[in-house]
Design goal:
single chain, 5-stranded antiparallel β-sheet, 33% helix
């Protein structure tokens, strides 16, 4: 006997059998279906369905997943663990038995089946025999999910209400399918159609370490903005054409419309998730480049420097894109430039202080080599006079030698 009662939501009791020959004077029961009052159809440890009038029988209630009462624990003929699928089958059988005897009706809302829940398996969504789950050798079931051995192959199964089986097959298959797909959506006429707002709600924007385009992704953000404003890409193009000031005959206008149409077809007809596609991200960034170039000059769009938006591994000038390293180098250069600036300011301030004290230093001398003072005035030179008080320089060239 197990140490604990069963971990199941159904009520469990022990019924007194004082004349049991094996010494098990208390028998474990699971209440399956009430007929009326205290009359129940119960499940025995031998998996038989019995009718008990609990008003006339001595019984004790057991707690879920709890120790058996210590005073009678050694005298209990207890249940072995039972799977949720097997127990559900017994409850269904008890309801049918009561209905046959005119003591109740079968509740259709309880009808369910176990189906294969592996989308990649050829038999995905196929119903399996509940007997496989009821047998410990071929199945194991919990409340909603389980595992069965069918044809020597282990398969995951799931419990599904019969009325919801078709909806479950469609939703479950799409949820576990390729993340690049938005599903198979059609209008009332059966034609493929998915509006932008519905497509945005289905976009997953899954992170991918191998994604070939660097930087922050823009696809989902752009789709959300267009859905919230214009509602559709072609309407968005018309509004951009009207407000941007660009001539509709220019190449930028034609490229913008072509990109908007391509993005519309991707979600409307192809029904793919642009937020996880490298090609979709590339087209979105191309669209942003065109808009930025037109914003600079509507009459002559300027694309200079916008190659950084592409986020590709190679830049237009042929250099390999090393954005993280380039950012690190740029930050180091900024730090070095800041240090140099502070050094220049310090040296300038030091020169000014030395000049104020009259000391000699670079730019702080009291007089210059050409005789100018620190104030910028030139000193007057005294003229030398010869004998007799005459200026020797006033004479002509002949007076220099005395000739």
């Amino acid at each position: 006997m197990a140490d604990l009662t069963l971990d199941i939501p159904e009520v469990q009791i022990v019924v007194n059998y004082p004349l049991d020959g094996g010494g098990f004077f208390w028998h474990h029961r699971i209440l399956l279906h009430r007929i009326e009052g205290g009359i129940w159809l119960t499940l025995t440890p031998d998996h038989e369905i019995q009718r008990h009038d609990l008003n006339a029988l001595r019984h004790r209630i057991l707690q879920r997943s709890a120790p058996y009462p210590a005073d009678i624990a050694a005298e209990i003929y207890a249940h072995d663990p039972i799977g949720a699928a097997a127990l559900a089958g017994f409850k269904r059988e008890a309801q049918i038995r009561a209905a046959i005897l005119g003591e109740g009706a079968v509740e259709n809302i309880e009808a369910f089946v176990w189906v294969i829940s592996e989308p990649g398996h050829p038999d995905f969504g196929v119903t399996v025999d509940a007997g496989l789950l009821g047998n410990e050798a071929t199945g194991l079931a919990f409340t909603l999910k389980g595992v069965v051995i069918r044809g020597g192959e282990e398969l995951f199964v799931e419990r599904v209400m019969t009325r919801d089986l078709e909806t479950w097959r469609k939703k479950r298959g799409l949820d576990l399918s390729d993340v690049r797909l938005l599903g198979d959506h059609r209008d009332a006429a059966g034609k493929k159609r998915l509006d932008l707002k519905e497509a945005v709600a289905l976009m997953k924007n899954v992170e991918d370490k191998e994604f070939p385009i660097g930087g922050v992704r823009a696809a989902k953000e752009l789709h959300e903005a267009v859905a919230a404003s214009a509602g559709e890409f072609l309407i968005y193009h018309s509004e951009w054409l009207r407000l941007s000031g660009v001539n509709k005959k220019t190449s930028a206008a034609h490229i913008h419309r072509s990109l908007c149409e391509a993005l519309r077809l991707m979600h409307s007809f192809d029904q793919v998730d642009t937020s996880v596609l490298a090609s979709g991200e590339h087209m979105v960034r191309w669209l942003i480049q065109v808009e930025l170039a037109v914003e600079r000059n509507p009459h002559q769009p300027d694309f200079s420097g916008l190659d950084i938006v592409s986020g590709t591994a190679q830049l237009p000038d042929g250099r390999a894109s090393t954005s993280k390293f380039s950012e690190w180098v740029s930050n180091r250069l900024k730090e070095r430039a800041s240090i140099w600036k502070q050094e220049r300011l310090f040296n300038q301030e030091r020169r000014q202080l030395r000049a104020g004290r009259g000391g000699k230093g670079q730019g702080g001398d009291s007089s210059s080599e050409d005789g100018s003072s620190a104030a910028g005035t030139r000193k007057k030179k005294k003229k030398k006079k010869g004998k007799g008080g005459e200026d020797p320089t006033a004479a002509g060239s002949g007076g220099r030698d005395g000739k």
